[in-house]
């Protein structure tokens, strides 16, 4: 028994007394060296104090809900009581090492099975002319993939509708029967005047009039059409009247009258800049009639308060909106020669 050595490690034995070091059941009295009696130390208490601490007696890994824990079992050397300390073991991620969860393991197994199922599918490209045969398609597949094509395999023939190419997909056409099916253009490029493709719109903002924009609902819209279309409708519209009072806003008005009339217009404020209303008046009566013209603002009239139209003759007026709330009335005289189509005789005396 190496009593002297072990005791000296626990407590310096210089100046100790034999009776102070005697611990029944642990150290024989005759094994205790005696060097000095000038210093007394209670070795029994010192050894008990050294033994009153916990040491690791077991280490284990224990599952806890959805994680793993490292469990250390400690035992007190003096009391023999045990205790445990548990610490979570982190899972591995893209940065740090760690344990792999059951969910990750199952996902790897699933992905492995999916990869196995993908054998025989995928895409290859080749130049096969404009009319490839079934055998050509199969041969180019096996030469690149080194396996037999399965449902969904695709060969892109770059010679059809170049440069986009056509996609030929290996599909079942009957039970246990597969064929390469031409699915059309493979890669859609920007459309040109000679090749189909993708088109894109332009924002409906100033400077993009005439271009096409795409709305939030996926519909297309011609920029500026909201201004052009009403003008087209107005200029191509036609009205037939029998009185010159309150002429409707229309691009073309034909009036048939046989007595004196006063020319006026309904809802002038509804005319936009550039709009023109043309009025063709025919005197269906047997005598000359007088047409009273507007002379007050907002209509400018250089012809005076009235004009006359002979029996069977025609006259044309044109009301032009040249600025917001401003209008110009023009007059054209028409005549018939031997009952043929009317001929424009030129501007009137005022140069209009």
What is the averaged pLDDT score? 79
* Total beta-strand segments: 19
Shape: elongated
Please mark out the parts with pLDDT under 50 across 5 or more consecutive residues, or reply none.
Answer: 1-23, 35-40, 335-352
Helix-strand pattern: HHHEEEHEHEEEEEHEEEEEEEEEE
CATH topology of the domain at 237-344: Jelly Rolls
Beta strand % = 25-35%
Question: What's the CATH class of the domain at 237-344, please?
Answer: Mainly Beta
CATH architecture of the domain at 237-344: Sandwich
Taking all Cα atoms into account, the compactness measure Rg is 53 Å
Number of distinct helices:
6
Going by helix content, strand content and strand pairing, the class is alpha/beta
| Main sheet: strands, sense, barrel | 7 strands, mixed
Question: Fraction of residues in helices?
Answer: 10-25%
Straight-line distance between termini: 140 Å
Characterize the quaternary organization of these chains. single chain
Give your account of this protein's structure.
The protein has helices at 3-10, 18-21, 43-51, 102-117, 134-145, 225-236; strands at residues 54-64, 67-76, 82-89, 123-126, 154-157, 166-174, 177-185, 212-214, 220-222, 238-241, 252-257, 261-262, 276-283, 289-292, 299-301, 306-309, 314-323, 326-335, 343-344. The protein has 6 helices and 19 strands. Among the domains are: 3-54, no CATH class; 123-185, no CATH class; 237-344, Jelly Rolls, CATH 2.60.120. Strand 17 (314-323) and strand 18 (326-335) form a beta hairpin. Residues 1-23, 35-40 and 335-352 have low confidence and may be disordered. The strands form 5 sheets. Strands 10, 11, 13, 15, 17, 18 and 19 form a 7-stranded mixed sheet that branches. A 4-stranded mixed sheet has the order 4-5-6-7, with helices on one face. A 3-stranded antiparallel sheet has the order 1-2-3, with no helix packed on it. It has 352 residues and is of the alpha/beta class. The protein is elongated.
